[in-house]
Write a structure and sequence with these properties.
heterodimer, A: about 160 residues, alpha+beta, about 55% helix, about 15% strand, B: alpha+beta, 3 helices, 3 strands, about 40% helix, about 20% strand
Amino acid sequence: MRLLSREHGTTVWHLRSGQRDLLLLLFEAAITRPGRTPGLSRQSPGLDARYRADLAERLEEGRAGNHRVLTGSLRDPVLCIAADEGHRWTLDPDQTEMLLQSLNEIRIGAWERLGCPVGEEDRVEAVPGTVEFLDHWILELSGRFLNVVLRGLDPE
Amino acid sequence: MAGTTENPAPAIDTDPEAKTAKEPGYLVVCWDDPVNLMNYVTHVFQKVFGWDRAKAERHMMEVHEKGKSVLVREDFERAEFHVHALQGYSLNATVEQDA
């Protein structure tokens, strides 16, 4: 995946052969992830109690909406055109941010399912064919896509 | 986009805790976490607050090195809106009442 152009916030990406299907797989994996319920406040329990449920609901709606838009876009033959032995994928500015949000969400979901490993000592060798192996794969792949998008949007 | 959803104003009129909700007495705080990438956090701060890269990086580094950064001080409605936007990007952000 690489950025081909960026004009007025609209981005056009080249997806190599198979990368479109990998992205679709990632978005489908993310949908199976139970939503987290982040709080609104750490130090004001009253605020947190009042607004937590509403915030969680709106975040879940946002996540589901992002995935729906992105998978729809990847399957749309006008927005994701077969070209150059792969696909040329066009995203408007909001959709580009959705892509970042979704890739990061997928990455964090896999990381949490793996037990939130931080250092090398937390790393576990996953056996191929296991759920842990799949989550390692999701973590690695979503991280790579995320970095490609970030480098495209915010070059050093 | 999750981060730009228009939210209805919270019902604050009868809430004693939020009597001053229209005053800029609420802090949007971003807390450190071990998973979000530094360049991702910088990008999100730029996007959500419209900051330039240098300012976004300063706050990102403060989160990383000190465990948290106060991003803005504003009224409750705006603070809640910004926390919702930041959490839409999976950042660990909260609203705290300024002491």
